[in-house]
Write a structure and sequence with these properties.
Radius of gyration: 19 Å
Strand content: under 5%
Helix content: over 70%
Number of strands: 0
Structural class: mainly alpha
Shape: globular
Number of helices: 12
Order of helices and strands: HHHHHHHHHHHH
Number of domains: 1
Largest sheet: none
C-alpha cells in the first residue's frame, strides 16, 4: 500500500472539507458566481506565489498554460461551479455526499482508458467505500431521495474525476504544484464570463458580500486551504496511487465535515463515524497486492 499517496489524499480531502462550512456561511451574503470567481483567483495567486518561492527553477511563462487552462476550465471550473450550485440548492452535507460517487466515475475511467482489470476483491472494496461513504453522509436506506441539487453534485464528481486524471496524464514532467497552477488558471478563466454576465444582468448570483474580518477569514479558508493547498495535495495523491484509489478518499468528506462542525459545537454522530471506519477498510482493501495465479507465477519463472 502506498502510504505517502494515502497521506496526500487524506490531507487533500480534509482541507477540501474545510470549504463546505466556510461556503455555507459565505453564501448567506455572497452570490455563487462572485464567490467562486474570487475563490479561484485567490487560489491561483497563492499557487503562483508558492511556485516563485519553492520552485525557483520553473519559468512561469514556459509552462503549458493553454492546455492546462482547457483541462482546468472543464474539469475543475465547470465541476466546481456545479458543486457549489448543488450546495446552494441543498446544504453542505448533501454536496459532500455527491462526492462519494466519485470512485465509480474514477474506476470507470481507469477501465475505459487505462485497461484496468477489476478483481472481485477490488469491487468489494468499492462497495464498502460507497456504503461507508453513504453512512458517513447520513443516508438512511429508504428515506433518502435524489433531487436536482444532488444530481448536479453527481455530475460535478464525474467531471472532477476526468479533470484529475487528465491533469496527471497530460503533464507527467511537471510538479504537482505547477500542474495545479495551470489548471487553476482554467478554473478562474472559466468563471469570468458567467460572472460578468451575472453582474451585467444584476442577478443574485453576482452579489458581493461584506469584506469584514470574519468573511476575509472564511475566504482565506475557502480559497487558500480548501482549494489552493488541497488541490496540490490532491494532484500529488492522484499521481501516487491513481485516480481510482485517490477518489476513495473523497468519500470521507462528509465525515470530515462532521468533525469540523462538531468542533464548532454540533453533536457527534456515531453512525457517520462507523461509516468512516467502513470506508477506511475499503480503501485499504483496494490497495492490497493482488494474488497471482499459479500459471502467472510459472510463466514468470
Amino acid at each position: 500500500m502506498n502510504i505517502r499517496g494515502n497521506i496526500f489524499g487524506a490531507t487533500a480531502i480534509f482541507l477540501f472539507a474545510l470549504g463546505f462550512p466556510a461556503a455555507d456561511q459565505l453564501l448567506q451574503t455572497w452570490g455563487i458566481m462572485t464567490l467562486i470567481s474570487l475563490r479561484n483567483f485567490l487560489a491561483l495567486i497563492v499557487m503562483i506565489f508558492l511556485i516563485y518561492m519553492l520552485e525557483r527553477s520553473v519559468v512561469l511563462r514556459k509552462l503549458p498554460w493553454a492546455k492546462g487552462f482547457l483541462i482546468g476550465g472543464i474539469g475543475f471550473g465547470f465541476g466546481s461551479l456545479l458543486l457549489l450550485i448543488a450546495q446552494a440548492m441543498t446544504d453542505a452535507t448533501t454536496a459532500a455526499l455527491a462526492a462519494t460517487a466519485m470512485p465509480i466515475f474514477a474506476v470507470a475511467l481507469e477501465v475505459a482508458f487505462d485497461g484496468r482489470r477489476l478483481s472481485g476483491r477490488f469491487l468489494l472494496a468499492v462497495g464498502l467505500v460507497l456504503f461507508g461513504g453513504g453512512l458517513a453522509a447520513g443516508i438512511i436506506p429508504g428515506k433518502s431521495s435524489i433531487g436536482i441539487g444532488f444530481a448536479l453534485g453527481l455530475l460535478a464528481s464525474g467531471i472532477f474525476a476526468w479533470g484529475s486524471r487528465e491533469t496527471v496524464k497530460s503533464f507527467p514532467t511537471l510538479s504537482p504544484l505547477s500542474r495545479t497552477a495551470i489548471t487553476t488558471s482554467g478554473m478562474f478563466g472559466f468563471m469570468v464570463v458567467p460572472c460578468c454576465a451575472a453582474m451585467f444582468f444584476e442577478h443574485s448570483w453576482s452579489a458581493v458580500g461584506s469584506l469584514d474580518i470574519s468573511n476575509i477569514g472564511l475566504l482565506l479558508i475557502y480559497a487558500c486551504l480548501a482549494l489552493g493547498l488541497s488541490q496540490v495535495f490532491w494532484i500529488k495523491a492522484v499521481g501516487e496511487v491513481g485516480i481510482g484509489v485517490a477518489s476513495f478518499h473523497l468519500n470521507a468528506t462528509p465525515f470530515y465535515v462532521m468533525i469540523i462542525i462538531f468542533i464548532l459545537g454540533s453533536e457527534w454522530n456515531w453512525m457517520q463515524a462507523l461509516g468512516a471506519a467502513i470506508l477506511t477498510v475499503g480503501t485499504v482493501m483496494a490497495q492490497l497486492p493482488e494474488k497471482r495465479s499459479g500459471h502467472e507465477r510459472a510463466h514468470q519463472l
